[in-house]
Amino acid sequence: MSAELICPVCGFGNRPGATVCEDCGLLIPQYQACPTCGFMNTADSRFCGNCGSELGFEKKFSGGPSRLKGPAAPVTAPAPPPDPPAHSLQPPSMIPQPPPSAAQPASAPPQASAASPAGAAPPATWSPSPAPPVFEDFAGRVPPKAGPTFRLVHEGTGVEIRLPLADAALVVGRPGGGPDVDVSGFPESSVVSRKHARLLVSDGEVRLEDLGSANGTYVNNVRVRAETDLADGDRIAFGQGAKVVFTFRLS
Q1: 227 or 105, which is more confident?
Q2: How many domains, the chain?
Q3: 39 Cβ partners below 8 Å, 6+ apart?
Q4: Does some domain include residue 80?
Q5: What is the DSSP letter of 59?
Q6: Which stretches does DSSP call E strand in the chain?
Q7: Would you call 105 helix, strand, or coil by DSSP?
Q8: Helix/strand/coil for 149
């Protein structure tokens, strides 16, 4: 039976073949027995420390470096590329130039150009780009500047109906009355008449009138009996019971 491997640091007896101490966690030196006298030498010893016999280290480790030996032989770095010629590092003005020979006279300095002959086109000169054109609509009128927008926001669904900015008279109702603003797609729209009310857009303002509907038109819970000016935030109900309600928005 093989003897225990004693940790040289803490003295703990480890199982045979252990490489790390099971008590302190440090590496345990490996040993090899001398074939002549049986003395236990470290695994990387070449000669026995007791009788001096050769332990066969070279034969044992000839296949490659030992796991217990130091780091492998350093890798030689590749040689740096040769330096470029010295004259290539100099600015062009410092590179020596051969003197001009008689067969190759020095270039003459540039001469001023002769005056352009009469009738020749003058040289091109830069000029700023012309101002961009003003685009007109199909009627030949300049588009108006951005102004306010009129919207009806349905309470409950949040769907918006945008009203035109130009002067217009818009009928609010359901199919069959030729409405400009069809509310048949909203819940409880059966309380709305086919020709229920009219929105009058003029001079940047919106007014509302009832067209004799069966269930009436209300602005802020007050029944509309004549043309009524609308302001931002007014609550419009088409029919009783506040079933089809919009908020008028001016922005």
Answers
A1: 227
A2: 1
A3: 33, 48, 49, 50, 51
A4: no
A5: H
A6: 5-6, 13-14, 31-33, 40-42, 150-154, 160-163, 168-173, 181-182, 195-202, 205-210, 217-219, 222-223, 228-229, 235-238, 245-250
A7: coil
A8: coil
Contact 54, 46 (CB under 8 A): yes
Domain membership flag for residue 222: yes
What pLDDT is stored for residue 136 in this prediction? 42
Q: Which pLDDT score is estimated for 144?
A: 46
| pTM of the shown model | 0.42
Cβ atoms within 10 A of the Cβ of 218, count? 18
Q: What is the CATH number of the domain that holds 177?
A: 2.60.200.20
Length of the chain equals 251
Q: Are 197 and 238 in contact (CB under 8 A)?
A: yes
Query: What local confidence, expressed as pLDDT, does residue 125 receive?
Result: 54
Within-domain flag for 183: yes
Beta-bridged to residue 20, according to DSSP, are 27
Q: Encoding tokens for residue 248?
A: 């008028």
**Phi, psi for 71 (deg, rounded to 5):** -65, 155
pLDDT grade for 186, boundaries at 50, 70 and 90? very high
Task: Write out the residue range of the structural domain in which residue 227 sits.
Answer: 150-250
Q: What is the mean pLDDT of residues 34-49?
A: 76
Residue 246 lies inside a defined structural domain of this protein: yes
pLDDT band at 194 (very low <50, low <70, confident <90, very high): very high
| Bridge-based pairing state of the strands 160-163 and 150-154 | antiparallel
Phi-psi region of 242 (alpha: psi -120 to 50; beta: other; left: phi over 0): left
Instruction: Judge whether 229 and 242 are in contact, CB under 8 Å.
Output: no
